[in-house]
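@here heads up, posting the sequence + SMILES for the pyridoxal-5'-phosphate run so it's all in one place. Ping me if the SMILES looks off, I pulled it from an old spreadsheet.
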Amino acid sequence: MGSSFHERVLQASIESGRLGSDRPLAAFLDTHRVARTIDALKSAFPSHFEHMFAAKANTMRRALERVKSLGMGCEVASPGELEQALRCGFTPREIVFDEPAKTMSVLKKVQETGVNLNIDNFQEFSRVVKLRDAARRDADIGFRINPQVGAGKIGAMSTATQSSKFGVALEDDGNREEIIRLYRDNPWLNSLHTHVGSQGCSQELMVAGVRKVTALAEEINAALGRHQVGVIDIGGGLPVNFSSDEDKPTFAEYAQALEAEIPVLFSGKYRVKTEFGRSVMAKSGFIASRVEYTKVSGGRCIAISHAGAQVATRTIFMPEYWKIRISAFGPDGAAKSGEPVEQDIAGPLCFAGDMAGTGRQLPLIEPGDYVVLHDTGAYYFSNPFFYNALPAPAVYGAEPGQDGSMQLDCWRRQQSMDDMLAVIG
Ligand SMILES: *Cc1c(COP(=O)(O)O)cnc(C)c1O
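bot reply: prediction finished. Complex structure tokens:
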């Protein structure tokens, strides 16, 4: 049997010293899989859809450059993400800016550079109006709407509840009328945006949110007697399957559900933008950590590795929602075989909850083995957390070369002690 992708990456990393006793932690992105995923996204939707990668899912320069080269735009939600997107070569027209707490200075920059803008609330709108004189006129600008369709499984990830902090609550008293009035009085408002939530939202909920915002666009255009709203930004939020290697749901399934319920989005009447993050990169990434020690405590087998909350923050703080697959490899990078034994996989941080997984059935892990945390290409190693002053690990783009060997391209060096301490302050 041939080696798996993970084995080949581990073997190449161990042989080249990128993983080992002094380099116990590293992260990898399967760049061919990212490309296949973006192809699947593009072919699921007609060509009047523009796909913006949600930069917060992986804000690394090389990740953004890669998605740009594969034909995506970029959705950014902070001054730092905006700067990174501009430095990565996205043109202002290829960027959409969403942030709940935009300062006057970032609004000025967004308008002067001509970056597309989703306005979160009426107070922000008055600031945007004040800055109109300096604005470039070719950007898409409009409101983010909270369609108030309800929550998915994860409260913290659900942005379309009755009282969500995001956008203008469409069903609250007077808001719908106020939106229509503002679009009538301000012909430069030409888009509408919604993002129902990330992970844990059902397809029905996402489609319901998009349907309401599309209906609002139709309502505004009908009320104004002109096709003023020409852009609908339907956000991201396609959930990722963390329980197997399968891509499920697929972009095609979501597109079919949208088309069945909201055919006008597929008619070409509107330019449509999407903002997928997790579903573009999660399944292409993994974290590998050397196991330092193993022990048995109170009858439980525990393997202590270097992958904890500094790289898998959500999984560790909310394990019930963010359980990820873990597998075990030997010191040479070959998948371990042997009778499965129930084991806990601990991280290195000094708090008891720092567990990447508990009660996992895996071949008995020994010191010097490696554990792999799967599906961590979005919102994991790209967003390190500096608890315990641990450095952010190296990240490599991994792809098989012409000669069949595994090419590991350094996307980010392991953070040096000085750089990490500079971040700590
Ligand atoms: C987080 C976010 C996204 C991306 O969500 P995913 O679940 O990663 O697809 C898109 N748009 C907005 C406004 C967001 O906040």
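MO: The first strand starts at residue 25 and ends at 30.
MO: One more: The pocket of pyridoxal-5'-phosphate is lined by residues 54, 56-57, 75, 77, 98, 195, 198-199, 235-238, 275-279 (CB under 6 Å).
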